[in-house]
Design a protein that fits this description.
It contains 9 helices and 13 strands. The strands form 3 sheets. Strands 3-4-2-1-7-8-9 form a 7-stranded parallel sheet, with helices on both faces. Strands 10-11-12-13 form a 4-stranded antiparallel sheet. Helix 3 (about 105-115) runs parallel beside helix 4. It has helices spanning about 15-20, 45-55, 105-115, 135-140, 160-165, 180-185, 240-275, 280-300, 305-320, and strands at about 5-10, 35-40, 60-65, 75, 85, 90-95, 120-125, 145-150, 170-175, 205-210, 215-220, 225-230, 235. The protein folds into 2 domains: about 5-185, Methylesterase CheB, C-terminal domain (Rossmann fold, 3-Layer(aba) Sandwich), CATH 3.40.50; about 200-320.
Length: about 325
């Protein structure tokens, strides 16, 4: 096991701005290794991101590579479309299932830090939406590690910091106030052996289907934290699953509207052809059918989310966080 303390940093929306503030404050003499996960798309340019972060940082920032040793005074940033984990004294990259609809996932990194390093592990949650990283923060805290959430009042997007606080992040700080705590974590004397806490994990089959593969989801519990996992390993927090299912409903309604609009168009073509051939009886019958399709379109549109729905959802999310 590596004797180097590792600070895992997780962020999403607003994360580039948060890292722009955090990275210049990091110092190599703290003897900490940093691992950074930013929610990002598979098509994003890793080399450009590495260069950008390096231009800001007070320590060297490199794109994480599979099997790379953990080195104090250095940061690695996870490439797009893979997970980053801590494995003994090395960083590993995996193509495991998406978690909270993300790869890389903050929770994947944070769990590995907690399980592998115990008191040598730390987690920082910066700006982002929803709650990826909350379960990982809870696990790091349970195993004696350092947990920090960016002050939600400072973050461009407060969802992830608020969720981390609700999950038990012990330190809520503005980025400018994190230096002293991180420096102390790097020089802290720790016992030679550490007892890791094992969380209870009850499981219960649900009727929910996985948004990624349509497999059945199993409800699992880590203390008070609830998450859902399918057979192949796609994992969702309750909040992320709710948001994804809401999106599926809206997509299904728009698909229904599209099919009905196509039916209207096809029916109107039949009406024109019927009239061109002098078949007024068929034309009138098809006009009645087209009118029914138009009525159905209006009925389906009533199910689409309104501005009021969107505001209520946003306010409910803030209250949950």
């Amino acid at each position: 096991m590596s004797g180097v303390p590792v600070v895992a940093v997780g962020t999403s929306a607003g994360g580039i701005e948060a890292l722009h503030a955090l990275l210049p404050r990091l110092r190599p003499e703290w003897n900490l290794a940093f691992a950074i996960v930013i929610h990002r798309q598979a098509v994003e340019d890793d080399a450009r991101l590495e260069s950008l972060l390096n231009s800001w940082a007070g320590i060297t920032v490199l794109k994480a590579r599979n099997g790379e040793p953990i080195v104090p005074g250095r940061a690695v940033v996870c490439p797009a479309d893979v997970h980053l984990i801590v494995d003994d004294s090395h960083f590993r990259l995996t193509t495991g299932p998406r978690e909270n609809h993300s790869r890389p996932s903050v929770d994947v990194l944070f769990r590995s830090v907690a399980q592998t390093l115990g008191e040598l592990g730390a987690g920082i949650i910066l700006s982002g939406t929803l709650d990826d990283g909350a379960a990982g923060i809870r696990m790091i805290r349970e195993r004696g590690g350092l947990t920090i959430a960016q002050d939600p009042e400072e973050a461009l997007h407060s969802g992830m910091p608020r969720s981390a606080i609700a999950a038990g992040a012990e330190n809520v700080l503005r980025i400018s106030d994190m230096d002293e705590l991180l420096e102390g974590f790097g020089t802290l004397e720790r016992p030679a052996t550490r007892a890791l806490v094992t969380s209870e994990n009850g499981a219960r089959l649900t009727r929910f289907t996985c948004p990624d593969c349509n497999g059945v989801l199993v409800e699992q519990h880590d203390g008070n934290f609830v998450y859902y996992k399918c057979r192949v390993g796609h994992t969702f927090s309750a909040e992320t699953l709710h948001a994804q299912k809401s999106a599926e409903i809206e997509n299904a309604l728009w698909s229904a509207i599209q099919v009905l609009e196509e039916q209207i168009d096809l029916t109107e073509r039949v009406i024109r052809r019927a009239r061109n051939h002098g078949n007024e009886r068929l034309a009138q019958r098809m006009e009645t059918r087209a009118e029914r399709y138009r009525e159905r379109v209006e009925m389906v549109k009533l199910g689409l989310p309104s501005v009021e729905d969107a505001i209520e959802t946003s306010e409910a999310r803030d209250q949950m966080a």
